[in-house]
Write a structure and sequence with these properties.
Helix content: 40-55%
Protein name: AAA family ATPase
Strand content: 5-15%
InterPro entries: AAA_14, P-loop_NTPase
Strand order of the largest sheet: 2-3-4-1-5
Radius of gyration: 22 Å
Structural class: alpha/beta
Number of strands: 12
Length: about 400
């Protein structure tokens, strides 16, 4: 192999790096232990994984040719082996390699393990689908690597990305105790509710900025790709017929959210078995398209029927043509943002139980405690208010958790 062989990859790497902006960085950037010899970043399509890698390279390497970035879904790999590329780069002084779309490479876990074992001073960073299940793969990478998950933009990040306000993230416990003071500081100088409405429609995936009016259509296209390509790449046994059933299942849910599913009826409509329907539901959740609410801790080895199903985020609601009710939009936002930082389950009373401790009811400004009266650690997440009081917390504040 010669430099002329990898010139197409070098051109793409240099071009992408040149266009990378360092002004705004996702929340995960500072949390990652970049010194780890092997680290992975998984997340849904379009949440900014590629930008994260390129920002790291641009900010931390004086000589960009000491490091190499490549996407493993590039057509170049149709007649070249990634193993040969790594050997060439390593013998020419490259000790940091950033792989994008790793799940597109055949037997990728074995490929990464062999690199880790064969090149003791090679630093490897990779990104992949939100569906990556490292612990359950045939090759054990869990002992060798640090693995991170990147979510879509929080409302807090959206405000910073738009240049509107720079707020610090809160833990859930901090939010419950300090929400009044935090909200008072946040709203000085900005009309937070106006921007919150915009975020709910278009603000979760960073590409909303470049997509403009085509943003809903772009989400639809990405959703198709996730099912046709990402889910199929991870779950290799999926047939064309199964892909079609997954799409039908997603649209049935989108038309009926929030869905309290009857798994038997769902299975019959899909001409599928109960077990297969549950698998498809959990695939869609792992692919960051659905949010499944159960009444007990989730176990992906022993699938239980969800009690309620939401789309993963509010931007998906518009893109998939849902009949959007304000109540459903509020609950979808809460489940998305709070579920990103702690466990959520469906309680006997109220809408959500967070961290198996905090009980929440979500609603509009007139919402009362009637449904969760006298229950310990109970709170209202209230829409259309800037500042709350006591256990009444503005809904938008739950978008400041990361």
């Amino acid at each position: 192999m010669e430099y002329s062989d990898i010139q197409p990859l070098l051109n793409i790497y240099h071009r992408n790096l040149a266009s990378t902006n360092l002004k705004f960085k996702r929340y995960l950037y500072k949390q990652i232990n970049w010194d780890a010899r092997l680290l992975g970043i998984k997340g849904a399509r379009g949440v900014g994984k590629t930008t994260l890698l390129l920002q790291r390279i641009k900010e931390n390497f004086t000589n960009i040719d000491d490091v190499f970035y490549v996407s493993l879904d590039n057509l170049w790999f149709q007649n070249h082996r990634a193993e040969d590329l790594v050997e060439f780069l390593y013998t020419h002084g490259v000790h940091y390699i950033f792989f994008d779309e790793v799940h597109k490479y055949p037997n990728w876990t074995l490929f990464i393990k062999n690199l880790y074992d064969s090149y003791p001073d090679l630093n490897i960073v990779y990104t992949g689908s939100a569906m990556l299940a490292i612990d359950n793969s045939k090759v054990d990478l869990s002992r060798r690597q640090s693995l991170y998950s990147l979510k879509g933009l929080s409302f807090r990040e959206y405000l910073e990305y738009e240049g509107i306000a720079t707020l610090h993230p809160l833990s859930l416990e901090e939010l419950l105790k300090e929400h009044v003071r935090y909200a008072m500081n946040a709203i000085s100088g900005i009309k937070v509710l106006k921007y919150f409405e915009k975020y709910l429609d278009a603000g979760y995936y960073p590409y909303y900025k470049t997509s403009g009016k085509d943003y809903p259509a772009r989400i639809g296209e990405v959703t198709q790709l996730v099912i046709d390509s990402d889910i199929a790449a991870i779950e290799e046994s999926i047939t064309y017929a199964t892909k079609q059933k997954i799409k039908k299942l997603l649209m049935v849910i989108a038309e009926n959210i929030p869905l309290e599913p009857n798994i038997r009826q769902l299975s019959a409509s899909l001409e599928s078995t109960r077990d297969q329907t549950l698998k498809m539901l959990y695939w869609l959740e792992k692919a960051a398209l659905l949010n499944l609410l159960t009444d007990k801790a989730k176990d992906y080895k022993h699938l239980v029927g969800p009690k309620k199903i939401y789309l993963e985020n509010t931007n998906l609601m518009k893109a998939l043509g849902c009949r959007i009710s304000k109540g459903t939009q509020r609950e979808t936002f809460f489940a998305n943002q709070v579920g990103a930082v702690t466990s959520l389950s469906m309680p006997k009373q109220g809408d959500f139980l967070a961290n198996n401790k905090y009980l929440f009811e979500v609603g509009g400004a007139q919402k009362t405690f009637d449904q969760i009266a006298n229950l310990p650690d109970s709170y209202l997440a209230i829409d259309n208010v800037e500042v709350g009081n006591g256990n009444r917390i503005p809904l938008w504040l739950f978008g400041c958790l990361y």
